[in-house]
Each structure stands twice: as structure tokens, then as C-alpha cells.
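User: As part of a screening pipeline, I want to sanity-check one entry by hand. Below is the sequence and the SMILES for zinc ion. Please return the complex as C-alpha cells so I can compare it with the automated output.
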Amino acid sequence: MAEPEMMPEPAGGTRDDRVVPFQIEGAHVRGRLVRMGPAIDRALSGHGYPAPVSRLLGEALLVATLIGSGLKLRNRFTVQAQGQGAVSLLVADYRAGGEVRGYAGFDADAVAAAGPDADPFALLGGGFLAMTIDQGPDTEPYQGIVPIEGGSLAAAATRYFDQSEQIVTSMRLAVAEAFDRRTAEGAHWRGGGIMLQRLGKGGEEAKKALDTEEAAEDWARAGILLSSVEDVEMIDPDLTPATLLYRLFHEDGVRVFEESGVAFGCTCSAEKVANVLRLHGQEDLKDMVEEGEIRATCQFCSALYRFDPADFLDDREAGA
Ligand SMILES: [Zn+2]
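Assistant: Here is the complex for your manual check:
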């Protein structure tokens, strides 16, 4: 079967680290597909977390990218999970322009006890998922908070739309360590996700159009097709986003819009870390001195910053 001309594929380039918006023709269904290779590998592998924690953080990064890339974002969109189980914290940032980063907080003993094949979502053990739109200085952040429930991070995340915008949303995510046959290197993290939303073109007319039986059938069919996607298809480096979308939605036809890039990136700097250190009292700072210096590691990218204690401690105490 011939493939439709939907999207020029970059010649010899990577198909990874892209967000592809699309629309199912005539079905009032829009969506976005994200495919991450080096971006998610850099964001995850630097931490050296146990595999189930990496998978969970990877899913949070995909959620942040799927939602953040669809916003008129000027600064940052953050997905933060506060878990009640072995994993107590996930933070995933998506910055305007497509940079992602994240970190996790967890009880190492409890994660180890659950084993390497533990269901990552179960490690959260409930709690809350906060999604925050930060448009930069002199603006109030907008935050939506939903319970961590529904059997997957994807299901929990879609409730954000039910609650904040009343847009019916469906999401699939896949994160795995995979070998790349072409480079014959070791395993790298890969991630893929697809989000579908039931949308009109805007306004009351569009809302009415969604009330028809046909529109309901369109949405149900799109959901069935989405649930038919195999995890491996979402992360397969040899299966382009365009081919995957065509495979899924070719009966209705799928239109692909301009894609955007995504990359790992951190905004930390010595100056920012120093400013955080200055919030500590003199006693705390003195306790932090190790081998004649104060060291601080960025939680997101693991960069190590080293400072001269004399820059932080009062003069009369620094020489003590
Ligand atoms: Zn950093």
C-alpha cells in the first residue's frame, strides 16, 4: 500500500525528538504524537535511577511534552507528581522552545524491594499530580491538580483537561530501554506518546457539532485505534511518526501539521545555585563545607557546582 504524502521526512536525519501535531479528517479529533530518543535518554540516564523510576520519570517527561508543546507557552510547563508510595516525587519540565528535564525522589529500599519489573505507576501509590503553567516573571502561575488514579500516569494526566478545560482527552505513553541496531551501542532510553482530544474548530457551533451521534462514534473509533497501538510501535526508531499515524488513522485520513523539536536542556547556573545557597543560614552553610569547599549538585542535570566557603560565610567566621 502506498503511503500518502503527508510530511517530508528529513533525508538521512533522525526521526527522534519530535512533536507532531495532527488531525483526523472530518472527525473533530486532534492530537499530538511525541517521539523521543536522545532527549529522553539524556534526561534519564544521567540520574542512574532504578529502571521502574526511570520509566515513571520518562512518562512524566512525555506528559510534560505532549501538553506543554500544545500551549502558547512563554516560559515553562511543569508536571509534578507527589506520590504516597515508594516514589514520592516526580518533576518534569518542558520549556518554551522544547527543552525538557526532570528528576525523581524515591525510597531506594522500597523501590528495590518492589523489584526491577515492578509496575512503575503502582510505585506512586496514589497522591496528586500538579500541572503548572509558568509564563515567566510578573505573571501568576496557573496550576491544575488532579488525583493520581486511573491505573496509569497517562490516565491521571488526562483528568487535567476534564477539569481545567472540559476537553475530553485520551493518552498513551511508552518508555523503554532499547538497543539501536544501527549504532550497535548499549541500551538507550526511548519514549513515545500519543494524545487525542475531542475538539471542534472553536465556538458554540463546534460544541454543537460534538453532540451528534456521528461525532460520538468518531471519538469512540479513535479511542479504539489509540488503544490498539503497541508500546513498541511508539518507540520504534524505524517507524516514523507519519507512518505510525497513517497506520492508525488511514481510514479517516490524517492531516499532519508542522512539527517541533524537543531536546534535553537544563537552565541551572553557578549564579542560580549560589542564590539558593544564600537562602541558608550561617550554621547550615558551615555544615555544608566539605574538604574546604561547598558543593551542590543540580537535581535535574547532575552538574556539580563547587564554591569557596568564604563567599558565603561571614568574614569573622570564615577563617575559624
Ligand atoms: Zn542543571
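Points to compare against the pipeline: Residues 266, 268, 298, 300-301, 303 surround zinc ion (CB under 6 Å). The chain has a mean pLDDT of 89.
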